[in-house]
């Protein structure tokens, strides 16, 4: 019996390594990444249906009106959002789908998809987070301090997530995350069809046939 895939939403602090974690899950276990829709123009090398679904503003607003998006937002004059159809198609095929988004978007998706699995990625300590941000060497200390201040605010939402993923050693983190997602498939609320099937089969023995 083909089991439906798990919609997994991954959020976390900037510098926690969530992007690297997602890449490893996709590479090692063939997870599917949710493809976002946007009204911005394609950049060189980008293809419709690969990096993004590139839509006109009218097309995007029609999707909003028709409730075809799991979540959406507008940034710098362009819409970005997560189409339901692609996600649902992959889940029905039995593939796990990863959606790497910010906290507010994650909570919006959870409202529409109560069975979505929410994972929050964090380093083992605040000091390690600071060291990783500095170690990237891409931002000045003023920007890094702003990210740390934002992380302090984001930490307040950690209790809203189903699991906390401590990204200390990457390979262990990848294995732990995969195990959580796979085990989620066997939660009783996700196996109601199987429970009903075997319960009906067992009635034969109860009746003595």
From TrEMBL:
Subcellular location: Cytoplasm
Catalytic activity: GMP + ATP = GDP + ADP
Domain of life according to the entry: Bacteria
A cellular component term, taken from the record's GO annotations: cytosol
UniProtKB keywords: ATP-binding, Cytoplasm, Kinase, Nucleotide-binding, Transferase
EC number annotated for this UniProt entry: 2.7.4.8
The keyword Oxidoreductase is assigned to this record: no
Pfam family, one: Guanylate_kin
Keyword Metal-binding found: no
Enzyme class, UniProt record, top EC level: transferase
Chain positions recorded as ATP binding sites: 12-19
Domain Guanylate kinase-like, residue spans: 5-182
A single GO molecular function term of this UniProt record: ATP binding
Role noted for this protein: Essential for recycling GMP and indirectly, cGMP.
PANTHER family documented for this protein: GUANYLATE KINASE, GUANYLATE KINASE-RELATED
Family note: Belongs to the guanylate kinase family.
Name of the protein in question: Guanylate kinase
Organism: Acetivibrio ethanolgignens
Origin organism lineage: Bacteria, Bacillati, Bacillota, Clostridia, Eubacteriales
């Amino acid at each position: 019996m083909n089991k439906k895939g798990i919609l997994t939403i991954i959020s976390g602090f900037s510098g926690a390594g969530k992007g690297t974690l997602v890449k490893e899950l996709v590479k090692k276990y063939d997870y599917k990444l949710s493809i976002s829709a946007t009204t911005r123009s394609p950049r060189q090398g980008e293809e419709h249906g690969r990096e993004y679904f590139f839509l006109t503003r009218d097309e995007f607003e029609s999707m909003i009106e028709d409730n075809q998006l799991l979540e959406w937002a507008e940034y710098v004059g362009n819409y970005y959002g997560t189409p339901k159809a692609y996600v649902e198609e992959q889940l029905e095929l039995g593939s796990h789908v990863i959606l790497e988004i910010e906290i507010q978007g994650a909570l919006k998706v959870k409202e529409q998809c109560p069975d979505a699995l929410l994972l929050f990625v964090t380093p083992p300590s605040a000091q390690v987070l600071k060291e990783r941000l500095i170690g990237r060497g891409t931002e000045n200390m003023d920007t890094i301090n702003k990210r740390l201040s934002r992380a302090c605010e984001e930490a307040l939402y950690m209790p809203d997530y189903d699991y906390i993923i401590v990204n200390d050693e990457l390979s262990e983190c990848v294995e732990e995350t995969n195990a959580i997602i796979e085990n989620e498939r066997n939660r009783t609320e996700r196996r109601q069809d199987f429970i009903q099937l075997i319960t009906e089969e067992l009635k034969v023995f109860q009746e003595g046939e």
